[in-house]
Amino acid sequence: MSDNENKLWCQNKRQNCVVQPLLTDLYQITMAYAYWKSEKMNDYAVFDLFFRKNPFQGEFTIFAGLEECIKFLEKFHYSSSDIKYLKSTMPSSIDERFFEYLKDLTPKDVTIYAVEEGSVVFPRIPLLRVEGPLIMVQLLETTLLTLVNYASLMATNAARFRMAAGKNITLLEFGLRRAQGPDGGLSASKYSYIGGFDGTSNVLAGKLYNIPVGGTHAHSYITSFITLDDLREKTLAHKETGKVYDLLELAYKHRNSIAADIGALVSEASNGELAALISYAIAFPQRFLALVDTYDVERSGLLNFCAVALALNDLGYKAIGIRLDSGDLAYQSNFARDLFERIGIKYNIPWFGKLTICASNDINEETILSLNEQNHKIDCFGIGTHLVTCQRQPALGCVYKMVEINDQPRIKISHDVSKISIPGKKVAFRLYGADGCALIDLLQRSTEEIPQVKHKVLCRHPFQESKRAYVIPTRVEPLHKVYWKNGKLCQPLLTLQEIRNKVQESLRTLRNDHKRNLNPTPYKVAVSDDLYNFIHDLWLQHAPIGELS
Amino acid sequence: MSDNENKLWCQNKRQNCVVQPLLTDLYQITMAYAYWKSEKMNDYAVFDLFFRKNPFQGEFTIFAGLEECIKFLEKFHYSSSDIKYLKSTMPSSIDERFFEYLKDLTPKDVTIYAVEEGSVVFPRIPLLRVEGPLIMVQLLETTLLTLVNYASLMATNAARFRMAAGKNITLLEFGLRRAQGPDGGLSASKYSYIGGFDGTSNVLAGKLYNIPVGGTHAHSYITSFITLDDLREKTLAHKETGKVYDLLELAYKHRNSIAADIGALVSEASNGELAALISYAIAFPQRFLALVDTYDVERSGLLNFCAVALALNDLGYKAIGIRLDSGDLAYQSNFARDLFERIGIKYNIPWFGKLTICASNDINEETILSLNEQNHKIDCFGIGTHLVTCQRQPALGCVYKMVEINDQPRIKISHDVSKISIPGKKVAFRLYGADGCALIDLLQRSTEEIPQVKHKVLCRHPFQESKRAYVIPTRVEPLHKVYWKNGKLCQPLLTLQEIRNKVQESLRTLRNDHKRNLNPTPYKVAVSDDLYNFIHDLWLQHAPIGELS
């Protein structure tokens, strides 16, 4: 890629270029034509974008992807080549004027209300409410869903890993090679950072989104050194004095003297591994973090690592730590921690006991919870496949449903009650208790009065008549803000860092029993009494009376 | 996006711009520095890219992604902004000359052997063998894995859906909104087409890859019409005579006369739905395919659809068919087929009985197999979530292992035998039987003689001593070709269409018992006697002797 092209890319830092109006399902365009043809294109429509079920058998979701939605709107425009392609694809009977119409079409008359990016959200609450001319609002569907679905799923997954690991553990995303292609990998890095990860191994994500990047070396680095003869450069200058020493000689000496501490035999340790670690230490004397499981953690890896770390210490450098990529991580991390502490005491090097222990072998949320129970001594997890593919549930399933057209409410009836959509233009509030925790989310019709602090609010289950509760909120938070109106952004967008902070802040207002991994308590999403009656009147109107014969 | 930008995009039609050298894990770059620093960068290394287990509990995999790997190599170059970013990220102690070195680094001395894209492949067979200067070969790892992993997983998943559906069913990919973001969606469209799908709903994929696109309308189209008054345009010109008729009037008349054939009451059918279908028919008189499950398939949807289809027939147009998106698809498709056939006979319209029936509700491989058992009458499936997320196994797990360095073989030892890598530079052959079916894949050392047709070849299990077989092949196919050498492509790449054909051709050589959904027979991947001994000698050399105490 030339620098010019690269520049173009960097200009679009926050958004992938493939996010353009044709990144949609064909039926949006055929519908658009049919609306245009039947002169319905300017009917005023209201659509809700929401999901029906929290992912990962959990009881919360993190909303993400809003910024990319807005960037998409800002650039929405059918190019000449788009129009040319559409002409070639659609039936030749299409009225030529439709394409002229498309050329000038922009979302300038669309209004979008949205929940703040990074917020905890729940089923049925519209993440976006999109209103405006039917044709335009319909044309946005697929792209908005694409941008919100994976972003929110990924941020939620990352937030769950964060909760499982606790706040003091470093979490790095290592999933690029297992993601859904190049951009799947970039999205994974971005949204796992938002969800609470500390960084990624993906260098391009680091460059594009200004996310911290991390990583050291692979097993192949170790195995590329076969004997000590492969070590062409053996010297390193002392950090303070600048005097040059033979690092191999120093490490060799240490290896002999600490073998007994580890309970290993020098003769069993790999010299290829020692050579690799020395060469790596020479390259990164201040960032020495070594993979120690290529041959045998206890008989070789830890012995070689400690020897090199002690040699570095002789020259004024502090090693960073080790990475474990196989085997029993709880046992190995305890073994390593204990060893580091003993060596720290024996050689009077206080930081030695605190060396970082990283782990990275096919880790999922349950692995972390299980490692916690086994009192692991790991400081940092590198997580790939399970994080980026969201193995436990690889799609969120957001939908985009018409709830009103030309001021007439629309309801989707289904035999499956969970699939019934809540009709009409709605607003949502989060009601908080005296302890600052969120009590319930409340959907109201947009025409109703806003719930008042310290006043009794009747909250009803949207479909079950008998489930009702009075709530007296200490704080009432409106969940939606207008983000897009008159063709422009009308609300400052949060930076990546602010969204990341918002996630943790928002999660803190949620009671622990809603967040726990096992059998979490469902958080309640209610409707007002007015909205309840409105839904049920419409439902009865539209549901056919069955007949048994 | 301006047309200029778009042009840039189209120039890169076959490859997403984010595929660039920084789309990698940071540890590749830190390793590169350490190799450079220790003067090992030009050590001659051989890496194999392979997977250990077929996905989806199946016994075969489709190899895909090769073309994107080659395009990546062709453009491989660190831009100034890449170098600037790396400088800002890596420790300040890094020798400045390393960045100069990176600036000029290209894969010109790398040689890549690969299996042909679209081939059926099996565990342990190198999909790519990458040789050349250690530093460069290592720097390619993550990107090559990213490009092959999801592409192959997706193509395999699509091929499985194709086998489940049979060759006469139209399969459309509908997954954009549930994919891993924008490019995840594009990759899904491309590789499901390669795997045997007939098209996609993703318009941008259609434009970029020249894949057929399909789609009609959503439920929201139907619900945007509330009564017949919403129908502003009701007329359509006769296809042959050009005479203008009132389509509503004609449809209304037909609805009254066929209600009894369906066993429905006109009074129960939705007039909003009728209005929607008429408007859609006016927009697409030659491509009328209607969603019939918005209200009630039997009481409303089919009645309205048939009324409009018959009205279109009066004006010389042939309707295409219906789409079902909920409920019991086997029952409904049979109900619809039976109805279409009865109406076809009654009104003497032969094509009516053959109207297309599409289905699209959360379909996976098992759903199709179950629908087959229930003798469904569906002609076309639209498949989204389960296809693009590969729900049953969302990652393939290809790995990239060093097998030789400076002519010395490298073996990765593991307690888990399936994780032991097969050392050394290898070539692979597929041996075919007299019936044209593939019998076994055979890995040999690159120095061995090629197996001969009609000569006995001893094939051994790579790790189990007693598992051996003599094979007398009728045909011997070398599996690898050189694709990249001296800085350029040296083998014509197949077009998308050719790769798609290759998949089916390659699958045809595989016995059915290897391909079946339930308990498929594993296809054998063997090693030559020479390679067997080579592996086991090395294994014994490297495996430490355990000690029990």
TrEMBL record, chains A, B:
Broad class of enzyme this protein falls into: ligase
Annotated Nicotinate phosphoribosyltransferase C-terminal domain residues: 425-534
Molecular-function GO terms, alphabetical: glycosyltransferase activity; metal ion binding; nicotinate phosphoribosyltransferase activity
Catalysed reaction equations from the record: 5-phospho-alpha-D-ribose 1-diphosphate + nicotinate + ATP + H2O = nicotinate beta-D-ribonucleotide + ADP + phosphate + diphosphate
GO biological process assignments: NAD+ biosynthetic process via the salvage pathway
NCBIfam families, A to Z: NAPRTase_put (TIGR01513)
Family recorded in the similarity comment: Belongs to the NAPRTase family.
Role, per record: Catalyzes the first step in the biosynthesis of NAD from nicotinic acid, the ATP-dependent synthesis of beta-nicotinate D-ribonucleotide from nicotinate and 5-phospho-D-ribose 1-phosphate. Helps prevent cellular oxidative stress via its role in NAD biosynthesis.
PANTHER family attached to this UniProt entry: NICOTINATE PHOSPHORIBOSYLTRANSFERASE
Protein name: Nicotinate phosphoribosyltransferase
Source organism: Apis mellifera (Honeybee)
Primary gene name: 550885
